[in-house]
């Protein structure tokens, strides 16, 4: 890996760079590799009608990625899909873990209470859909043999499938147009295609068709995307809708904040979820699948009626992507429990071969509770020297929530009560090998040392009735890249860029 970046990426002249950035500017917009501009780029007073779109932040070159690591991450995705489906089906096991969080984390508690309320009424839908993304970094600490180590597993609102498909196509286009000069590593077989858009949409379509195959329906069926107000990463979502529409599956977007104005749930036996679009107040659709691209963060819940909305979605007969149990299965705490070295749980949920494969991708994660491991972890976490190679994570999604290195002890102090620490996990930092690349963001090109994070998408449809996995597929990949020195890699949050792999 050391030699990895010396002769990559190729050097381009000023004229070549101008040409390639102009090409990226147009290609990205022409192919929907775009975002609505962040407010600091273009304020709403400068774009009062909200019509502007700009290129999504992308890398100039595909970043180098060890071929063996890439294949391994792809190869274990279906085992991971099954693992998380089985966790979501095991309410008793999951409940014990969540119980510890409920005591210290209001958001997790509210979600769990909705599950309990619905359980009391009795769930009317046994089918559940997961559009998952398992994230990894390449670790070279072990004798320089590169290995993938999992950063986290996402079970709700796993994003960037749409845009990552397009960035792979962009890099392939730049290569085919011979804009990269001749370079080592870059050749037709080092740039694998990325089919995330079609395979993720296929997952939604499969759930929809399975729902449709059961019983006679009074109203036409639809898939409902429940989204955040003012979403900037909208084209990433839109492209999934367009694939569904092209399959003649009516698909609508509803902002979570206005859910209660547009949905009803029928009587307590069937609990069919009916949707009336604002633009067609005389029509009604029966919702087959609720796809949540919201509700993963406390700030989506402003009033009591937002909690009510989440409750009604959960109790309805629509297939949820994800259900509350599936959402909670994605907690960092669950990942920590699975990653405990002596943990028997992987073997409980998976056959031995799959369990061993998955286990190899774990890195050290510790609880911050009163167990023996927890006490050892606390001693590290309050020591400003020892915590240099760790990250502290709360049970949150969407980026920007973690505490790094020396910031950990003062953060824990600021929590006051030590009992609250157990809402967090302490994770060893993975240090991927840096390489060089350039990021094109907001029209500017910035070059330097970067590191990458690979996400592998998967889709899974299962039935908690009989514990059956009905559909389980790989669904393409995402490569995200950030400056070596930046701690978080959120593309939307303004630190990172979308990338594709050049396999070596
Ligand atoms: P979120 O659910 O908010 O995305 P993550 O666990 O993915 O939370 O953490 C956010 C980012 O922090 C990751 O994308 C990665 O850049 C960095 N990060 C998290 N865990 C680690 C780790 N163990 N080693 C190195 N970087 C990490
Ligand atoms: Mg996440
Ligand atoms: Mg993440």
Domain count, please report it: 2
Structural class: alpha+beta
Q: Kindly state the mean pLDDT as a whole number? A: 95
- Gyration radius from CA atoms, angstroms: 23 Å
Main beta sheet strand tally, sense and closure: 7 strands, antiparallel
Quaternary organisation? single chain
The total strand number stands at 21
Bound molecules: adenosine-5'-diphosphate, magnesium ion
Poorly predicted segments:
none
Amino-to-carboxy terminus distance: 10 Å
The number of helical elements comes to 16
Helix/strand layout:
Layout: H1 14-30, E1 34-35, E2 54-55, E3 58-59, E4 63-65, H2 67-75, H3 77-89, H4 91-102, H5 106-121, E5 127-139, E6 147-154, H6 161-176, H7 196-212, E7 221-227, H8 234-246, E8 251-255, H9 259-262, E9 263-265, E10 273-275, E11 285-293, H10 304-315, E12 319-321, H11 324-329, H12 332-339, H13 345-349, H14 352-359, E13 365-367, H15 372-381, E14 390-394, E15 403-404, H16 408-414, E16 424-428, E17 435-441, E18 444-463, E19 468-483, E20 496-499, E21 501-503
Parallel strand pairs: 4-21, 7-8, 7-11, 11-12
Antiparallel strand pairs: 1-2, 3-17, 5-6, 5-18, 9-10, 10-11, 13-16, 14-15, 14-16, 17-18, 18-19, 19-20
Helix pairs in contact: 1-6, 4-5, 5-10, 7-8
This protein binds adenosine-5'-diphosphate and magnesium ion (2 copies).
Adenosine-5'-diphosphate is lined by residues 135, 137, 151-152, 391, 393, 396-399, 401-402, 427, 429-430, 453, 488-489.
Quick overview:
It is built from 16 helices and 21 strands. With 504 residues, the protein is of the alpha+beta class. The protein is globular, with a radius of gyration of 23 Å.
């Amino acid at each position: 890996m050391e030699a990895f970046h010396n002769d990559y990426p190729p050097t381009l002249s000023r004229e070549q760079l101008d040409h390639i950035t102009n090409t990226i500017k147009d290609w990205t917009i022409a192919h929907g590799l775009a975002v609505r501009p962040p407010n600091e780029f273009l304020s709403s007073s400068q774009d009062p009608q909200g019509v502007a779109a700009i290129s999504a932040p992308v890398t100039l070159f595909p970043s180098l990625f060890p071929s063996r690591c890439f294949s391994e991450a792809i190869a274990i995705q279906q085992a991971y899909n099954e693992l998380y489906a089985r966790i979501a089906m095991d309410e008793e096991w999951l409940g014990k873990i969540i119980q510890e969080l409920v005591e210290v984390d209001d958001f997790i508690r509210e979600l769990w209470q909705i599950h309990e309320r619905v359980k009391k009424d009795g769930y009317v839908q046994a089918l559940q859909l997961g559009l998952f993304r398992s994230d990894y970094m390449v670790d070279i600490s072990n004798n320089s043999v590169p290995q993938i180590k999992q950063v986290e597993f996402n079970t709700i609102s796993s994003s960037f499938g749409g845009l990552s498909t397009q960035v792979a196509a962009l890099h392939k286009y730049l290569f085919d147009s011979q804009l990269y000069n001749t370079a080592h590593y870059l050749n037709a077989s080092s740039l694998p295609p990325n089919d995330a858009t079609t395979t993720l949409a296929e997952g939604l379509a499969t759930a929809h068709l399975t729902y449709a195959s059961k019983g006679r329906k009074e109203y036409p069926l639809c898939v409902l995307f429940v989204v955040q107000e003012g979403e900037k990463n909208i084209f990433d979502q839109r492209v999934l809708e367009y694939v569904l529409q092209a399959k003649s599956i009516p698909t609508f977007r509803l902002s979570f904040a206005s859910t209660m104005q547009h949905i009803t749930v029928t009587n307590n036996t069937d609990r069919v979820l009916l949707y009336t679009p604002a633009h067609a107040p005389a029509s009604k659709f029966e919702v087959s699948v609720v796809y949540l691209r919201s509700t993963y963060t406390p700030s989506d819940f402003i009033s009591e009626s937002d909690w009510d909305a989440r409750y009604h979605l959960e109790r309805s007969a629509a297939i949820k992507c994800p259900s509350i149990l599936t959402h909670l299965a994605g907690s960092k705490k669950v990942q920590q429990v699975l990653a405990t070295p002596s943990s028997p749980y992987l073997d409980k949920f998976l056959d031995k071969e799959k369990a061993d494969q998955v286990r190899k991708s774990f890195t050290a994660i510790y609880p911050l509770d009163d167990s023996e491991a927890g006490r050892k972890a606390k001693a590290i976490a309050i020591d400003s020297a020892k915590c240099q190679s760790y990250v502290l994570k709360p049970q949150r999604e969407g980026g920007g929530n973690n505490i790094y290195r020396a910031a950990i002890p003062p953060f824990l102090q600021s929590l006051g009560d030590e009992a609250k620490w157990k809402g967090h996990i302490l994770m060893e930092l993975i240090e991927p090998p840096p390489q060089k690349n350039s990021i094109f963001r907001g029209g500017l090109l910035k070059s330097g040392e970067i590191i990458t994070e690979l996400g592998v998408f998967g889709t899974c449809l299962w039935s908690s009735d009989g514990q059956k996995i009905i559909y389980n597929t790989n669904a393409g990949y995402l490569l995200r890249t950030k400056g070596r020195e930046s701690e978080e890699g959120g593309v939307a949050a303004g630190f990172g860029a979308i990338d594709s792999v050049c396999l070596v």
